[in-house]
Each structure stands twice: as C-alpha cells, then as structure tokens.
Request: fold
Amino acid sequence: MAITLTPGTWSLDAAHSEIGLTVRHAGISKVRAVFQEATGTLEVAQEGTFEVDAHVRAESFNSKNEDRDAHVRGEDFLNAEQYPELTFVTKGIRPAGDTFDMTGDLTIRGVSREVTFEVEFGGQAVDPFGATRAGFSASAVISRNDFGLNWNAALEAGGVLVGDKVTLDIEVAFVHQG
Reply:
C-alpha cells in the first residue's frame, strides 16, 4: 500500500485520537479501556518513509470503573508512579495488502518488546480551518505477561480473572506542523 503524506513533522491530535485496549475478564466477558492522555510525533521523510514516537500517560487509564482503574494504575499492573509512560517507537514499516505492518518497540512498565501493528491509512486532508490532517487505525495483540503485568487471581470454576492477551486498538489523527 502506498502512503502519500506531506513530508515534515506531524503532531498527534489527542482530541481526535483514541488509544484503547480490550482484555478478557473472568473468562466470560471483555473489558474495554482507554488512555485519555497521549502525545506523539510522526516524522515523514521526502522519500515517504516515516517514524512514530508516541507517549501515553499510564495515569490516564480509564475503564469507567474507579476501583479497577486504581488497581490497573497501581503496582500490580502499570505502576504509574514508577513508570509514568508507555511508549512506542517505530523500527520499520512494510506493505501488507491494503494495510501495512508497523513494527517498533513498545515499552510498558519499563519492559520493551518488539510489537507489530496492522495499520490502515485513512488518508490526508485539509480541514475547514486550513490544517493538514492524516488519520490511521492500528491494531495489535500483545501478551501482558511479556511486559511483566503478571498479577492475576484464580477463579473458583477454573481459569483466571484477567486474560493474558490484550488487544490494542488505536485511532489517531495527526496534524502537519511543517
């Protein structure tokens, strides 16, 4: 897939972006959450290559349940006090049909692992206020245990309270800065 973006620096438009996740709960349902605070840049070179550097505030985790949010932000999971950010820095991209794969280092709780996101390019457009914007949708499945997020509780009927697989779903908009 060819991605045509204006070269230069692009900034994440947090007001028009969402960094979300889904994880299995109690073996029977899924819990969804978002991180409400993120920053990032997209650097596009003349030859069309690009690099992403994204930072997400761990303290901004929100699943719409205050007790769960406090637990996830605490020492059992994100340990937001000691590790205030989750980060992602690209290492490369490659076409994959109508989408592309973006590989990079994802760091959670001080542990970095290489992760590949499947990314869909939504396009580039100029908004009514003259800002040039680009949109992307990205998804990846990670193992939370790979990042040291090992807390769990056994269920009476068997299994565990929190699933290992976490699906990251990201909808982002970037604004061209020049």
User: Anything to note?
Assistant: The helical segments are 66-73. The mean pLDDT is 92. The radius of gyration is 17 Å.
